[in-house]
Specification:
3 domains; 463 residues; alpha+beta; rod-shaped
């Protein structure tokens, strides 16, 4: 204590002075111990509060990332590469443009690092947000997935493949669910469905229903369910049903004509006033018969007869029944003169001129050009089309020889919003080597509703 007294005297304080006060060393040590105890008690709670707040903020950020990803997928018509590796796996932030974080970044999600890593997590960390699918569509375009609109979904009434899960945690010690070993980005059905349908947090910080294993999570998560952020990205409202009604058409154009050079039965002499022409199995078609009256024979046995110049198909109409022929009929009374002395006989005649039917109007799914130069066009023709590609849509006509109006003329297909159908006219049809329509395009139909109908009535497209 003498040291303290000397120190105090050094400061000019007299020992035993009742007007002065101070702390002893023991008192200072006691205060420091109390502060340390309080800090030890409060610090974990403070750290937990910071962690909870960070997780809450992450939960608010995740929907923004999901919305940017959806926006990018729809605009670019592509399913993302849902690779969930890290930099150590040779997957760089600036890698393939179709990595899911790059797509989201291009469409308002922030930078690629901001999209890929949870809030507060350093870029390059193994702790990343993870995207999970139930389908093997990684990096494929909508065009590649839907193709001709058939058999790309297990169920069109409940297309569960059109669901995506986006998971994250700001706690680097908590591992997210493992993907299938043979299919990165894919969760097994039971785990995916549990996270989608059943996940809820109980009062004890554990899942409200089921065990952690039901959700593909380890026991290290026990009591820390609040640190898991889940964003369900539902794409099922993108599924569009397209019903297409299609009919064959008449190949002959308006103004096409027939005469005795291509229909021999039109030749000869006809009784004046007896000729007329009409169409059968058509609606909206019209035909005109051109004839001339002339004199045959010599006086006093001369006669006036009509001769057909041509039959003109003045207006192309629609076919009524494709299982029957569409024809033009020319009827009249034909005059025959024979014998010596000559005798005249009259015979009612009907000449049937068959019209040519086209195939069904061509329809094709169009793959838009992504607008990128692949660097392979050096000005030389390599026989490859670097622009748009198409997939023909077929399925009309009789099945096993059986003709049923509804079955022959209607098909139902399933596509995704934003896809485009290339429509053509059958009488202009030119086929490429693979049988795809190449020069019959008359318009493009953009699928922008969940239910659409298209109809080619034999004359034009209606939608």
């Amino acid at each position: 204590m003498s040291f303290i007294a000397k120190s105090c005297n050094f400061l000019g304080i007299k020992k035993g002075d009742p007007n002065t006060s101070g702390f002893t060393l023991l008192e200072l040590i006691g205060v420091m111990v109390v502060i340390a105890i309080l800090t030890a008690a409060v610090l974990p709670s403070t750290i937990d509060l910071i962690q909870v707040q960070r997780s809450v903020n992450e939960g608010g950020k995740l929907p923004q990332v999901a919305e940017a990803l959806k926006r990018g997928m729809l605009r670019e018509q592509v399913f993302p590469i849902y690779e969930n590796g890290t930099e150590d796996d040779d997957i760089s932030i600036g890698g393939n443009k179709n990595y899911w974080w790059n797509i989201a970044a291009r469409h308002g999600g922030g930078s690629a690092s901001e999209v890929r890593y949870p809030l507060g997590v350093r870029p390059g960390s193994e702790n990343t947000r993870k995207l999970y699918f139930q389908s093997s569509w990684s990096g494929k375009t909508f065009f590649e997935v839907t193709s001709n609109g058939l058999s790309w979904l297990s169920s069109t009434s409940d297309p569960r493949e059109l669901r995506i899960l986006l998971l994250s945690t700001t706690s680097s010690d908590l591992p997210l669910p493992d993907e299938l070993e043979h299919d990165p980005g894919i969760l097994d059905n039971s785990t995916f469905n549990a996270l989608w349908d059943d996940w809820a947090i109980g009062n004890d910080g554990n899942p409200a229903t089921g065990d952690w294993s039901n959700y593909g999570l380890a026991e290290i998560w026990k009591g820390r369910a609040t640190e898991l952020n889940i964003e369900r990205i539902d794409l099922r409202d993108w599924l569009s049903t397209v019903v297409i009604e299609n009919h064959k058409a008449i190949q002959e154009t308006s103004g096409y004509s027939f005469d005795s050079s291509n229909v021999s039965e039109l030749s000869g002499n006809w009784e004046p006033g007896s000729l007329y022409a009409y169409t059968e199995n058509q609606v909206g078609s019209s035909v005109r018969l051109s004839s001339v009256d002339t004199t045959i024979g010599s006086p006093p046995d001369e006669s006036i007869v009509s001769q057909i110049n041509k039959v003109i198909f003045t207006k192309r109409g629609k076919i009524v029944d494709e299982s029957s022929d569409a024809v033009i009929k020319v009827a009249g009374t034909k005059i025959s003169i024979s014998g010596d002395p000559p005798t005249t006989s009259l015979s009612p005649i009907s000449v049937e001129i068959p019209l040519t039917l086209t195939d069904y109007a061509p329809v094709a799914l169009l793959e838009p050009d992504d607008g990128e130069d692949d660097g392979e066009d050096d000005g030389e023709d390599d026989g490859e089309d670097d622009g748009e590609d198409i997939t023909s849509i077929t399925g009309w006509g009789p099945t096993d020889g059986e003709f049923d109006y509804k079955k022959c003329h209607f098909i139902k297909r399933f596509f995704l919003l934003g896809q485009e159908l290339l429509l053509g006219e059958p009488w202009k049809l030119t086929l490429s080597a693979d049988g795809s329509p190449t020069s019959s395009e008359v318009g493009i139909f953009v699928i922008d509703e969940v239910f659409s109908t298209l109809r080619f009535d034999g004359i034009q497209w209606e939608y």
